[in-house]
Structure formats: C-alpha cells, structure tokens
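Example record

The entry below shows one chain as it appears in the dataset: sequence first, then structure tokens.
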Amino acid sequence: MKSSFIYLLFLYIIFILWGCGEKEKTGNLGETELYFDERLSSISADGDSAFWIGSEAGDIWYMKQRRLQPYNIGADRIYKVVTDSVLSDVRICWIGIRNSGLQKWALGEENVRLVEKYPICNKGCNYSVYDILLTDKKVYVATSQGLYAMSHSEKDSLKLIYPSDNSETARSGKPFIVNNIRKYESDYLLCATQNGLIRINLANGKMEVTHQDEHIYSVSVYDNKVYLLADKKLYVEDISGNLLNNITLKFSPRIYYKLGNIHYFLDDNHLLLSDDLESFLSVPLRRKVPQFCTNVVATDKVNGYTVLITENALWNIPLHLGIFNAKGEIVASCSDGDDIYYVNADNELYHQHTGSPEAFKIAEIPDDEVVSGMMADDKFLYYISNKQVLKRIKVRQRYIGNVLFASSQVLYQSPTKITASYLKKEAEGTCIYLGIQDDLVRIDADGKASLVDDLHNKYIMRISS
C-alpha cells in the first residue's frame, strides 16, 4: 500500500497529469472537488443545475447531476458555451474560442459536427470570443476585437457594434477587448470593456459609454443594481449610471460574483469574501483559478452550490458558507469529513460543520507561532508551525475544554523549510507526508519519522493522491 502511494507521488512530482476522477474530496471551504486530466478554462451555466465546462485544449463536458458527457471539438481554449436549441439527443451550441472566433456546433452523444464559423473583417476567424449572450432576436458576442452582433440565422454574419466603423479596430483590426456581457431585465445590454462600460438601450438602439479610459474587468447585475469591477475598485450604480457606492479595494481581483448578501472576489489563488463591502475575509486557495475570462464561477441553484473552476478541478462550494464570524484573514484551513477548521491572522482556531451558517472559536494558538498549513483526522488536528515544525493537538469542540486540557505535541522538527504536507489515512493509522527541501519525510501513526529514499534530492512543492 505504501509503495503504491510513493509511486503515485513520484508521478505527480514529475508532472504527469491526473485523470478525470469520479472520487470527490472535501477541502478547506467545505467544497467537494472533481479532478480533470487537463487544465480547465471556463464554466457556462445551462439552466439552474446544468453546466458546460471548457478546457485549454478544446475539450468540452456537459455536466448535469454530477454526470459528465465529454465532447472534443479539436479547438483551442474554450471561453464560453451557450445552448441555442436541443434537437432529440443533439444540442446546437454557440461556442467562443481563443484565436478561432465564434463557432456553432451540433453536439451529440455519438458524434459532434461543426455547423458554421463566423469570420469578422480584418481578422477572419483569428480572433477570440470571451462571452456570448442570446436575446430573442440577436446573438451578441464579446471579442478581442470589440462587440459584435448578428441574428440567429446561420446565413447572417457578425457586424461590429462597438467601437465605431471609423475606429482603428474597424479599419485595421486593432484589438479592443470586451470582457463580458450582461442584460439588465429586457431593456439594456451592458458590456465591460478595456475602455469603459457600454450601455445599449435594446428598445431604440441608443448607445452610451461611461467610465472611459478605465478598464472594466466585469459587469454584473444583482437586485436591479449594476456592479462594475475595475482596478482595485468596485462601482455600484443604477441602470442610468448614477453612482450608488464606490468601494476602494486593497487587493486586485479580476473576477467578481455576488450570491445573496455575500460578495466574492477572485484572483488566481485567493478568494476574498465580504457581507458588507467593508471588511473582507481572505481564503487562500489550494488551486489556482483561471484568469483569462470571467466565466469561472456559476450557481447550482437546485443542489445549493457555488461551482468554481480551478486549473485542474471543479469545486462545489456550499452556498451557505458561514465563516464570517471567524474574524480576520484566514491563513490556513482544512477539513475532516463534515468538520471544517480555520486559523485566522490572530491565531484563533475556529470550527464549523459543513452546511452550518456559523463557525465557532474553539482554541487559540500561541502568538509566537505562524501557522502555514493544517490537516485533521478523527482524533487530532495537525499544523505546520513557523514553516519547520509539525505539531499535533487533540481538539475538543468547545473553547473552554481546549483552554483547560489542550496542549500541542511536536511530531517532527525539520532541519529545513517544510514545503508541502499531506495526511493519508491508512489501515494502521494516520500517516503524514512532509515535503522538505530535497527530501520527502514519512511520519507513521506512532510518530516515527523516516525519509523516502526514492525521492531524495527532489524539491517537493505539493503532495496529493
């Protein structure tokens, strides 16, 4: 059993990619995680509980009730997939692709068929499509060369809506990035661009541009309000453009999402959350989030999850994430079954049951310790202290019990920095693997530490199985 694990670990270290796994694991946000054997790029909702998942290599999966139907269209990075119609067991879809433009495909369980490609002036099909929005009459497309539109007819062609016909984009194909498109009820179309927000009145076609000379990374509509994410700023406006709130951020997210009263901000390796836009919780992510487009997060309204795309995995995060009473920045977290543990910047340890709206303070870690990693099993909580010491503590669920009885035990003192850690439950008990500079250490259930010879002189950055 041990040798097979070491072999898998060795494969991981030499960067052989994982296969798409059906096994789900619970992580530090209470999420379940589904692994894929290639890098993911986007997720597009199809109704309330179905999704299109796109990859860097042009693979697409249709996911409904955790069932995955794969399609390979042999394209580049997939930014967006939108279902146009369903005919028997075939879905007719609009697909936005890097450097291959807008395409329409017939995706069936037995085969896939390209229906049409849609070139634009100056670029042909050599442009990127970041977002697609369908209305009753038109298809709107956010591209690397501006905002385009066409009718639903296959015989129609894309026409440039913005910038204007006398712009350098229209004349010579100069890039003009439109990041995403949102509709405000049935009245307006809103587009986030590299140079402001485009607001189009769908009734009369009147167009207005605000926030010129400012890069708007995304536009969203929630509760009849318009949210604009710019560089270290979040603007909240009404549909007429009147400013309701202007929040200055101390971080630089590229993705914004709101669910209920919770605001989500994402950069490549942090999730920041707020319920008042005044105080923020920073949660480090175990996996990076793609930053190439805004289509990386969606809502599974039927099953009660936020669905997040990371580089090699899909996460289902419970909607009722109740960690806001764990004050301060979260510096480390882990889970064991339905139990989730957090340590904040004040070295306060919190506990939360998956699905519970509250987290409770259960212990305090000494001020002279800096926690950089956590793991848990049925009996103990393990944490990395000051990047060189592995400690173990028996945690009770009530604060008073931990104050009176809990004390930490040193399991391993590393001569160098601990670079990675992994807890593995084996038949004989819990085993801890630690990556240290140029070695892998195995600590068995009895606390005995030994080096793994096969991985001597290997710098280990992450351990998984």
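Notes for this example: The mean pLDDT is 86. The first strand starts at residue 25 and ends at 26.
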